[in-house]
Each structure stands twice: as structure tokens, then as C-alpha cells.
User: What shape does this take?
Amino acid sequence: MTRTPTFEELFRDCRRTAVHLEMRDAYMKSDPSFIDWKAGKAVDPAERWGDWLSLVTEAVSRGVEVRRARVVSTPVSEYIRFEYDVTDGLNIAAGEAVRWLARRDATSLALPGNDFWLFDSSLVLVNHFDGEGESTAMESTEDPEVAKLCESAFEAVWKRATPHAEFELT
Assistant: This one.
């Protein structure tokens, strides 16, 4: 069995594109940042996720296009409100382009069963979660058919999705 590279290794080895498709309405509800946000405490992305900001900023500075698309139910869940609130200071500030697609507008799209990152159109990092949104595993594959499916799904969502600055929570 081959070792799955770490997320940081995959991101640092990426040369052209890193795209992420998120399709859940809640993730890691045990995350202290989410818990603090729910309690009304200020969440400073630079303080909470400095490593992420550095990783993405470094990739973008070397020419990697980083894009994230989120398929969400509407009205949105409390967790998605949290994600939306931190997106400017976290994802956009790092250089990511972020778009949102209401799940009802994704009905005719063929989407894979799991969230994923696709690096340079060839390496897929599949993210697995339990029913409560807690991360359970990651696995990578360079299977060309899986990469093609993920790239096609991401681009279809991206084409229909609304840029972050224009997306209205409902």
C-alpha cells in the first residue's frame, strides 16, 4: 500500500491548479472556531488558520490557481453561515476564488459521492466524513477516470455557481 501524501505536500507540489469541491452542509462541528463563532466570539482567520493562509498564499504566489466551489442547501445551515462569514478573511485573503451553488441548482449535474481536492487535473484527494461531518479519512488517487470525473464535476459547478461577493445567504 502506498502512503497518501499529506495535504501540505500535495499543495506544495502543485504547479498549475488546485480546486476543491465541497458538498456538505456541515463539517467538523467540534471545531473550536465554529464553537466560538456560535457563541458570538470574534474569529480572526489569520490567528486561527495562519498555516492555511501561508500555504495558499505561497501557492498562489508561484502561479497556482486555487478555486473552491461549495454546493449548499438553502436556506443555509448554521455551519454554512459560519463558513460564509470567515471566507473573506480566510479563503479570499489567501488568494482563493470561491463560488457558491444552491443545491437545487445542481440537480442536473453529475457529482462524485465525496468532497475532493484536485491538483493539476491529475491527482485527487478524496475527503471522507462521518454522518456528523467529522473527518474520518483522506485517500489519494491518480486514476485518470476519477480525475476526469472530478474535474468535469468541479467545472460544471463552477460554471453555475455565484462568486462569493455576490452570493446571498437565504
Q: What stands out?
A: The radius of gyration is 15 Å. The chain has one domain: 7-41+67-84+98-166. The mean pLDDT is 94.
